[in-house]
Design a protein that fits this description.
Length: 205
Amino acid sequence: MNETTRKTLELFVEKAERLAKYFRENDARNSIVVNPGGLVGVVRNAGEEEWQIASTLDGFLMTFRLFVQPRDGIALYSLERDSQRQPKRQKPKLLDIAGLSPDWYEKVGQAYKHIDDTLTIARFSYNGQSITRREILETFLYGDGVHIDATHRETLKQRRRLPDLFRDLQLEFTIILAFMFGEILAVAEASKQELAGASSLSSEE
């Protein structure tokens, strides 16, 4: 395992563990279950205004964005879009790093496919147009959560005017986050095993 690969895996594991830390630290105070489904409790237990500033969710999103924005090299699923604002379904750059086991590459590929398949699902519609889970994720992330994009912010404002739909979309957003968190944890565990194996090999040399 070369130095670049080792640093990438260490960063992935560090940030995945930080996501889990938000649940551990908030569980006692907010009765939020420490598992991927715990995010749903933020919406169910908090009022609409509180949901917007719930510390568990805000803290989670600041780290979660590293796994969907390619700049830091640990994105498991990139939400970067082209000039026509269509999703670029590109395999994660994680698959380009060298020197890991076939099992690790398979785990990352499976996680990417699971996320991609899940984000194509459309359970809601607005003005006759289907709303995919990818659109829900991007609207909340880039309309308010971690970055402000004018188009996504306007979309979010329009949907706030429909309380029943907006409440359903809020819950769907947290379900999406919970699912993706589960995939991130699976890759983090596989990465820990790779790092442990590389460490034992180094100690034997």
